[in-house]
Amino acid sequence: MIPLAVPNLSGNEAQYLQECIRTTFVSSVGPFVDRFETELAAYCQANAAVACASGTAALHTALHVCGVEPGSLVIMPSWTFIATANAVSQCNAVPWLFDVEEESWCLDPRKVFEALKRDCDLRDGGVFRKKCGRRVSAILPVYTLGHPADMDAFREICDSFSIPLIADAAAALGASYKSNGLGKMKADLSCLSFNGNKIMTSGGGGAIVGNDEALLSRAKHLTTTARSGADYTHDEAGFNYRMTNVEAAIGCAQLERIDAFVSSKQQIDQRYRNALLKVKGSNRNRGESVTPFPLASWAFSNCWLTGVVLETGDLRDGKIVAAFHERGVGARPFWKPMHLQSPYAHAPLEPTPITDALWPRVLTLPCSTNLSLEEGATVIRVAEEVLLS
Ligand SMILES: *Cc1c(COP(=O)(O)O)cnc(C)c1O
């Protein structure tokens, strides 16, 4: 089976791991963590990075340091991986779920702006949703598929309502917005994941990147048990969200090759696009027809995941995915929205026509950075066979 997206570990990973073992620095102390934070910040064009145990831990910490308090609302897209909503829950806050825009599949700034104007009161220095009286404590766009949200629009909204802007950039390392890297995309803080299926991995891990030294040093303090002195003195109820030296060692080796990973993802995406657009034009009348994933004019996507949108089909009965699997291709459906997940079925929800129409038709195709040309050809052949004949 050609897998969907697996790690590519053929660089210095083994050497750096050996070094961890030789020096016995396998846990929370060791030089790779500092090195990873420094190199990651530089790559993201950010002032600083705080390495964390996971993308979810990074999101929880970022929301917390930006003032997301129990009972408040965090505006986010319904269509995301469940970790986005779970991080909000970990702050004892409540997700307020919105639709995405067609152009980017990311949170729609116009719908957010309208809801803030129409459904909220400005009082006591805060923004309160009239219907439930809860304060809106943050806006949390998600960079779907590694494609940035329209961040200029969100910056304007957040400035005019004085609401923190946090980006779930979990899978978007290497993406840019109007030629700016993650650190310059105007979120107060951006959160990354280095889980095994992302564009690069540290085994498991995440990071918060940004430019506000005060927020980032508070995040570092909290993720490392809020220790204020050498001898078991702590000044806050902190978290144990440290990345280990072993994880950072893998992360450092991966980061050395991030440019190659991004260009490999781009090439795979381009190849599927070319093959499937051609197919679309010539096969209109036989079987399924497909369209590509979005690429907004202002975005450079890292193409973390690539695939096709079925024009009329529906993946929910599992038949199409099973047909790919029978032919050795590990295609998969994509995220099921939060309003259809039992933990978030009762969260405040705006209408989601675009999400509802899209998500059952999005099929992701194998796109590991080390996918061979031959494997890519197999994916295209099988896609034509399953979807178009
Ligand atoms: C992967 C992912 C996360 C969670 O990251 P973990 O490291 O698995 O905790 C959060 N949000 C999005 C959009 C993701 O793709």
List the helices and strands and how they pair.
Elements: H1 13-23, H2 31-43, E1 48-52, H3 55-65, E2 73-77, H4 82-90, E3 94-98, H5 109-119, E4 120-123, E5 126-129, E6 136-139, H6 151-161, E7 166-168, E8 176-177, E9 189-193, E10 206-210, H7 213-223, E11 227-229, E12 233-234, H8 245-255, H9 258-282, E13 290-292, E14 299-300, E15 306-310, H10 319-326, E16 332-333, H11 353-358, E17 362-365, H12 373-388
Parallel strand pairs: 2-3, 2-6, 7-9
Antiparallel strand pairs: 1-10, 4-5, 8-14, 9-10, 11-12, 13-15, 15-17, 16-17
Helix pairs in contact: 1-8, 2-8, 3-4, 3-7, 5-6, 9-12
Describe the structure in your own words.
This protein is α+β, with helices and mostly antiparallel strands and 389 residues long. Helix content is 37%, strand content 16%. The strands form 6 sheets. A 4-stranded mixed sheet has the order 1-10-9-7, sandwiched between helices. The chain has a 4-stranded antiparallel sheet with strand order 13-15-17-16, covered by helices on one side. A 3-stranded parallel sheet has the order 3-2-6, covered by helices on one side. A hairpin with a 2-residue loop joins strand 4 (120-123) and strand 5 (126-129). The longest helix is centred in the last third of the chain and has 25 residues, at 258-282. The site of pyridoxal-5'-phosphate has 14 residues, from helix 3 and helix 4. Pyridoxal-5'-phosphate (PLP) is lined by residues 54-56, 80-81, 83-84, 142, 168, 170-171, 193, 195, 206.
